[in-house]
Design brief:
Subunit structure (chains A, B, C, D): Homodimer.
Number of domains of chain A: 1
Pfam families (chains A, B, C, D): Trns_repr_metal
Keywords (chains A, B, C, D): Cytoplasm, Metal-binding
Oligomer: homotetramer
Subcellular location (chains A, B, C, D): Cytoplasm
GO molecular function, one term (chains A, B, C, D): metal ion binding
Mean pLDDT of chain A: 90
Largest sheet of chain A: none
């Protein structure tokens, strides 16, 4: 299988890393709790987006291939274990 | 496509409905906030389980069929829209 | 402490119960998985709203009183245990 | 108000940043989607823990002070807006 284009995920992760640096600085500057908390939520939103992107490509590539090879149900079980943790 | 076995989902939903009746009674009895809140969380856990079950069957049946018919990517897009709401 | 006004929570819970009845009917009618899944998500949103309402009143009444009586930290610990489950 | 001890939050954030570096490397190494996804979930769990810690201190310090000064309800409204985003 060809290597997937991961530029979207890489950009999201690098942005998330930069924002974490910013939050560490906010704490050093003793900024207001709720403002810090909102920034942490923003990073969580980026990571969520990253994970949805990973999962989408996984389904369109690996799961598709697995169904073609008659092993789709194992892949689905694997995804469900991840979704169980994603989602409340 | 044959009709799916939905007994797991039906049982979960009927249990959830019974628990909601119980929570309404807890409120009528003026029970402690945190105890009520925990029961609401328990119903949310049941609905989460219901939704994972629905999604699992959807992937093993509808998505499988769609990939076989060359329309898998549309189905994946549709699932991703639902997952986006599921998951933070 | 006077009895809290719980009409908002009761209305939300009764609506949730009605929607669950609707979902059970959707399953009996063999409706499309994704449509069922979206309705389950809608009920989860109602329960989330219910829980936020319960928590808000809890903080404005019980937690306030607890801080006045010097026992606020115990109440906060109790809330954090609930939030830990709420929130991913 | 004295400066809060933020060492727990700082350690969690620095660990999260290190894990994001690791995930970027996993992507460069073209590792399996589900393994990458699990690592993203692990960072989200760290950020969740960070936010709960921030919120707990906020409630034990700022909210306590606000209730003492008769402005507790405004603080609670502010927290509820954050919780609304936290929690599904």
């Amino acid at each position: 299988m060809e290597k997937k284009d991961r530029s979207t995920e890489l950009n999201l992760l690098k942005t998330a890393r930069g924002q974490i640096d910013g939050i560490i600085k906010m704490i050093d500057d003793d900024r207001y709790c709720i403002d810090i908390s909102k920034q942490v939520l923003a990073v969580q939103a980026l990571l969520k987006k990253t994970n949805l992107e990973i999962l989408k490509k996984h389904m369109n590539h690996c799961v598709k291939t697995a169904f073609e090879e008659g092993q789709g149900e194992d892949k689905i079980d694997e995804i469900m274990l991840v979704l169980d943790k994603y989602y409340r």
